[in-house]
Amino acid sequence: MNYRHAYHAGNIGDVLKHAVLARLIVYLQRKDKAFRIIDTHAGIGAYDLTSEETQKTGEWLDGIAKVISTPMPDDVAALLAPWLDVVRANNPGKDLKLYPGSPALARKLMRPVDRLTLTELHPADFDTLSKRFAGDHQVKTIHLDGWLALGSFLPPKEKRGLIIIDPAFEEIDEFDRMASAVIKGWRKFSTGTYACWYPLKDRYGLRRFDEALKDAGVKDVLTLELSLGKSGPDTAMLGSGMTIINPPYTLAEEMRTVLPWLRDCLRKGSEASWSVDQLIAE
Ligand code: SAM
């Protein structure tokens, strides 16, 4: 396992992922009934933007740093507020120093009745993650292969939940692993919301993933993409997407407001683009 998210925290992929994640959790908050969030590839929870790793790549300078410092229209600001308020709360000074990853973001948006299950496989990253949430009775950290979490922890006892699937895409067959794990999870818990992130690099892998969901009979799947320039298997990542199973009915419209603004804010060239597509009907 070579991938360490510390080198990439706050980058353009995290921007899409965490903007969407916050909207999904805000929607879950609409009902009083408790929910569970399962984050299968959790990372370390939050990232020090002054660290050697983040300074080395500076990817966050092209991501969160631009988003937070660019004026935005009121409708975009209102939709991004649940995410950006958490980023601001972590950075009370004028400089960005700490970037909340998916666990820290989810934890901040949970209510006292809600629960968070985090799995992380990298031993050192798991150690950091578990220390971060030690003593927090609403959060369970587990040193486990995240692909097994989907088989083991579903359905959650709350019967309401969000599963965040954010692999490192280090392995050539990551899309295929994601397809079989998500389908297995969906068969056990078909009413849950599944949010799967992917880099826009391997179009063939993505097509296999989409086809596998269709063949398995999964319904109501939304695809969101944000690309800041032309990228491919041999270039740096310039875009990413999310496949959302059972999205809130509000999400597509929200993203039609947010994604064009993010594209303009973060664009790297004339080929920047965004899309919101219903991949599979309800
Ligand atoms: N979700 C995090 C966030 O948004 O802050 C970032 C996660 S990062 C993209 C992917 C993480 O998955 C890395 O920390 C990596 O160590 C971990 N990982 C890789 N393979 C894994 C596996 N099979 N099971 C669980 N974690 C894994």
**Order of secondary-structure elements:** HEEHHHEHEHEHEHEHEEHE
Molecules bound to protein? S-adenosylmethionine
Mean pLDDT score, rounded? 96
Report helical residue fraction.
40-55%
CATH topology-level name:
Rossmann fold
Please provide the count of β strands. Answer: 10
Low-pLDDT runs: none
Q: Please report the distance between the alpha carbons of the first and last residues.
A: 37 Å
Function: Specifically methylates the adenine in position 2030 of 23S rRNA.
EC number: 2.1.1.266
Site (Interaction with substrate rRNA): 3
Family: Belongs to the RlmJ family.
In short:
The protein is an alpha/beta fold and 282 residues long. The protein is 41% helix and 20% strand. The protein has one domain: Vaccinia Virus protein VP39 (Rossmann fold), CATH 3.40.50.
Question: Which secondary structure elements does this structure contain, and how are they paired or packed?
Answer:
Elements: H1 12-28, E1 36-39, E2 46-48, H2 52-57, H3 64-69, H4 74-89, E3 98-100, H5 102-109, E4 115-120, H6 123-132, E5 139-143, H7 146-152, E6 161-165, H8 174-188, E7 193-199, H9 203-216, E8 221-227, E9 239-245, H10 251-266, E10 273-280
Parallel strand pairs: 1-4, 1-6, 4-5, 6-7
Antiparallel strand pairs: 2-3, 7-9, 8-9, 8-10
The chain binds S-adenosylmethionine (SAM).
Family: Belongs to the RlmJ family.
Binding site for S-adenosyl-L-methionine: 18, 41, 102, 120, 145-146, 166
Enzyme class: transferase
